[in-house]
Amino acid sequence: MDKGHLLALDASPRPLAFLNLPPFHHRGTMSADHPSAGGRGRRSSVEVDFFSDDKQKEAAKKTPDPPPGGLAIKKKADLTINLLPAATRDDDDEPKMQQQQQLPALQAELGRMNEENQRLRGMLAQVTTSYQALQMHLLALMQPQAQHPIPPPPPPRQFLGLGPAPEEPSNSSTEVVGSPRRSSSTGNNKDLQAAERSDSPDAAGGPSSTAGWLPAEGRQQQEASMRKARVSVRARSEAPIIADGCQWRKYGQKMAKGNPCPRAYYRCTMANACPVRKQVQRCAEDRSILITTYEGTHNHPLPPAAMAMASTTSAAASMLLSGSMPSADGTPMTSGNSFLARAVLPCSSSMATISASAPFPTVTLDLTHGPPSAARPLAPTTPQFHLPQAPLYNQSTKFSGLHMSSSDGTGSTPPSAGPPPPIGIGLADTVSAAAAAITADPNFTVALAAAISSIIGGSGGHHHQQQHGLQQGANANNNNVTSSSNNTATSNNTNSETQ
DNA sequence: CGCGTTTGACCAGCGC
DNA sequence: GCGCTGGTCAAACGCG
């Protein structure tokens, strides 16, 4: 199936030049565009020989320089074009006649490949649809839960509730805490701000942050619960900020008590009124650890990379708020609990903790345990918390995670090794390795491909979800891999050091 | 000149 | 009631 998955990717309009998939050596799928072929003046020989072992050898002879490593998969059209010259060239020992005879066979092969591509595309589309449906269903299920748990005291302050302010009673049970909004909604002009917020898409339902960008209903519901929850990610990173695919603008910096490192405040600038904010601060004990706390939900569509992170954080927040995350003693976590409990996040318990003691319920994903960032191999045995988002998350951020999980669980995959999609891990992974991972296209590609293959060929349950996520990511990535990098770079550039 | 960051100030919540 | 702290604003500043 790997082949199929790759093909699916291949089907995307964008040349997957970044797709560096050594492990996936699929004769048929490797198009003539492979760097080894396309890059050289004489691609024809390679292309023609592509389907023949013997010829491959021959080609190898002719092309001393090894392929650049990137596995570029192109559209058949390109392949065809590349093939033609082969037949006409007046190259040395290869008789034209012979090549011409091969043409039909090659073309037939191409035809088959095309068919398969089409088929895979169809599958992908189906999976995507299924994923979306599942996601919505999940949201629907989660929301009610969020309302059941101990009803937290009604929000002390009221948001100038224009419209469906998240805090509004309807599902405000999730109003977990004096949310961050508290300050925002505070005082004078702040009231105004609050008003704006409620007015703005943000308040209106802009939600989707965490869950990426969700359409209307889901968003609304989700936002209510998510808004007050925070998802904190601890990861080792030298970068000043985590490259999560979103665009952030720094609006403040403060010295926080008990930490010599300043805390930087960022807000999402991908949309005018996006309510999502994040705080970035280095760990006092270990400054190599970057603590990023996300809050709020995006009220705008997100790029794949951002979606991954958003989805992950959203999922974590949802669980937290919904009480679906059992505490250490097995009782459901509620916003009311005032202690640190180990969350049963997919990842090991040591990686995710829930803190309700803080003003806001916070899920902390700690990725600092173990090898830093991208290269860190996560335990393949980690419990799985298969949320649709996980894949996305991994995909967009840290591909290592995907790679690991999908590749075979061996975790042997290089730079980007990572465990499966446990949210926590993925997230952490993402965070910690974000910069490196995203900028490292090859890894990204590998992980993506691996993830897709694993998902498709893997388990059935979340199969669709993952696939969808991947698919989205894949498609988007096809167009956005570079943009992701750009975003990342932008973020890094635009965001000043927090210290 | 526009955009983003820096930084001091302001405000509200909370604890004592 | 006061002080501390967190969060945000907005003018000033710097950079491309």
Automatic annotation (TrEMBL):
Residues 169-191 have a biased composition (Polar residues). Residues 237-303 form the WRKY domain. Residues 405-415, 467-499 have a biased composition (Low complexity). Pfam families: WRKY. Residues 52-64 have a biased composition (Basic and acidic residues). Residues 29-73, 145-232, 399-424, 458-499 are annotated as: Disordered. Its main location: nucleus. Keywords: Coiled coil, DNA-binding, Nucleus, Transcription, Transcription regulation. Residues 96-123 form a coiled coil. It comes from the Eukaryota. SMART domains: WRKY (SM00774). GO terms for cellular component: nucleus. One of its GO terms (molecular function) is DNA-binding transcription factor activity. It is found in: Nucleus. InterPro entries: WRKY_dom (IPR003657), WRKY_dom_sf (IPR036576), WRKY_plant (IPR044810). PANTHER family: WRKY TRANSCRIPTION FACTOR 31-RELATED, WRKY TRANSCRIPTION FACTOR 36-RELATED. This is WRKY transcription factor 31. The lineage of its organism: Eukaryota, Viridiplantae, Streptophyta, Embryophyta, Tracheophyta.
